[in-house]
Amino acid sequence: MLRFLARRLTGSAVALLVSSFGVFGAMYLAPGDPVSFLIGNRGSTPELRAALRSQYRLDDPFLERYWRWLGSAVQGQFGESLLQRQSVSGLISARLATTAWLVALAFIVAVAVGVCVGVAAGRWPRRLLDDAVSVAVSASIATPAFVSAVLLISLFAVGTGWFPVFGSGSGSVVGRLHHLALPAVSLAIGWWALIAQTTRASIRSELGKEHVETALARGLSSGQVFRRHVLRNALIPISTSGGLTLAGLIAGTAIVETAFQLDGVGGLLISAVSGRDFPVVQAVVLLLVVAFALVNTAVDVLYTVLDPRVRLGSAA
User: Fold this and answer.
1) pLDDT of 205-228, one tens digit each?
2) Could you give the CA distance from residue 311 to residue 94 in angstroms, rounded to a whole number?
3) Separation CA 259–CA 168 (nearest Å)
4) Which CATH number is 221's domain given?
């Protein structure tokens, strides 16, 4: 197990190194000059531009800037925001809790709804239920997050007043959940369908296996057979879709946080991109890459827990 985990962590570290180079380089290929945004509407002189470039070390060789940035990033230091004149690490840490709450709540909603719907449609394949699930899945996949956000705000915030329109809440856990309920549902709408589809297909596939028929012939109840032989074997593809869902939720926070005016990392990324705030964009994108790598590693480890043959096959 330790050897398997070491190989996965090494592969993730290499992927992160390559991704960090791409993230840093892509920012300097983007159109626009950060010095122009620093100056703003003030009068620009060659001396002022040269002073700013020297202050932020924008004239240093590319590789030198990259290694300096990477060394600081490993220590959790990403420099200073060009627009807000604050520590990038401080800006991110102040908003990280909101994004973490939003992603966790949306993931719980997506998994709970997706697995329940998928198990029901897979275990009891009735025409009416199957058609209803297919329509709901298609509608959810076809609805972008910003559209569902507008609809939820109109119906349950402005229309009924049941939920707050904007803000992430503070203080008690109940208050935060109350503020993040609509954003979490909006974020999860497009992803529960993936889990439901995967769960339904996996359940039906396992129900048709020979060992399931054998277990039923031996006198085991249908509930025992479903729990021991069907659901357990179906968990591997379900966990795969769960990992994809978690990664997709992390990436989708930017749209939802902007729609609901949440003080999260995703909203910070949107404002930084609009203002060409390179240090903030680089830090947030690198943080997203790290999150994706951690999710993939966690899913690989979960595979070995659900099915030891995965580990044995990797070792061979």
Assistant:
1) 887 777 777 777 777 777 777 777
2) 39
3) 12
4) 1.10.3720.10
